[in-house]
């Protein structure tokens, strides 16, 4: 499943890149976000979603797949997987894990950072696949279509990405949403002091990669990722799985683990960290959730 998830993210990314380079996005709005911004969709979202969904569905027809974009049941497609497993995955994942299909939920984000995609801010764009077992994220893939960088990890099995050697939790660099940051900037500065650096960025996938040792030169680096408004699970599941596999944490602002079953959104904000005392940070940020929705 890791191999086909990586392939799905890459194939979706190929569609995203092809549409962007054609400069014909067929951009439209699906409505408004809770913050009142346009919730945009492009043909890049639609075509990537189609490739990713049907590749995964054909390979694993019995698992539940949740995806950001609507899948037209009257327009089904069979996209075959050649069942080849790349060498880097075989090397890291020596012993596969078998689980019943009914315990598996797959979350697809066919184009993360659509707003930035329409603005041609390519570095923020990712395609993502996450596999959760009994609601717990166990496998994550984040692919950057425009630099062709792919990060993947599987909890208790292996990864092709690592944490950095050190992080600053006293005056951290904090990556936040550039489009709906709520009050996170103000509260973060109040909590950590004026020496704190705030990095506005697009895309939840990009923000998680900011916490890791990523060779992509366009990738900014941060010590923490904080989000204070409502967020969808397909935006964060892959990053949650990767952080968890590397010993990091992604929780609500009150420190609760996020379950990847049921509703497709998370109300309690988000705190993501690695190689720092996550619970101490949770205790340090008690006012963020209350302030973030004002």
UniProtKB/TrEMBL annotation:
Its cofactor is Mg(2+). Belongs to the inositol monophosphatase superfamily. Coiled coil: none annotated. InterPro entries: CysQ/Inositol_MonoPase, Inositol_monophosphatase-like, Inositol_monophosphatase_CS. This is Golgi-resident adenosine 3',5'-bisphosphate 3'-phosphatase. GO terms for cellular component: Golgi apparatus. Its EC number is 3.1.3.7. It comes from Eschrichtius robustus. It is found in: Golgi apparatus, trans-Golgi network membrane. It is an enzyme of class 3 (hydrolase).
């Amino acid at each position: 499943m890791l191999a086909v998830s990586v392939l799905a993210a890459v194939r979706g990314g190929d569609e995203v890149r092809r549409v962007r380079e054609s400069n014909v996005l067929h951009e439209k709005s699906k409505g408004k976000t809770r913050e009142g911004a346009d919730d945009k969709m492009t043909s890049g979202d639609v075509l990537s979603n189609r490739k990713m969904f049907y590749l995964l569905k054909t390979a694993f027809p019995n698992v539940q797949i949740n995806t950001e974009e609507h899948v037209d049941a009257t327009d089904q497609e069979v996209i075959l997987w050649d069942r080849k497993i790349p060498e880097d995955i075989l090397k890291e994942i020596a012993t596969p894990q078998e689980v019943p299909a009914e315990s598996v939920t797959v979350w697809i984000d066919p184009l993360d950072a659509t707003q930035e995609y329409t603005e041609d801010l390519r570095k923020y764009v990712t395609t993502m696949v996450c596999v959760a077992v009994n609601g717990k994220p166990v496998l994550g893939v984040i692919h950057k279509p425009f630099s062709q960088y792919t990060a993947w990890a599987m909890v208790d099995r292996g990864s092709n990405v690592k944490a950095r050697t050190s992080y600053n939790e006293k005056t951290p660099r904090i990556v936040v949403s550039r489009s709906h940051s709520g009050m996170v900037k103000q509260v973060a500065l109040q909590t950590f002091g004026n020496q704190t650096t705030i990095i506005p960025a697009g895309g939840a996938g990009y923000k998680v990669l900011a916490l890791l040792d990523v060779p992509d030169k366009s990738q900014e680096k941060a010590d923490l990722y904080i989000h204070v408004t409502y967020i969808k699970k397909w935006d964060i599941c892959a990053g949650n799985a990767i952080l968890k596999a590397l010993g990091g944490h992604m929780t609500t602002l009150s420190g609760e683990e996020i379950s990847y079953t049921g509703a497709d959104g998370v109300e309690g904000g988000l705190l993501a960290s690695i190689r720092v005392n996550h619970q101490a940070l949770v205790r340090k940020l008690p006012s963020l959730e209350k302030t973030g929705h004002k």
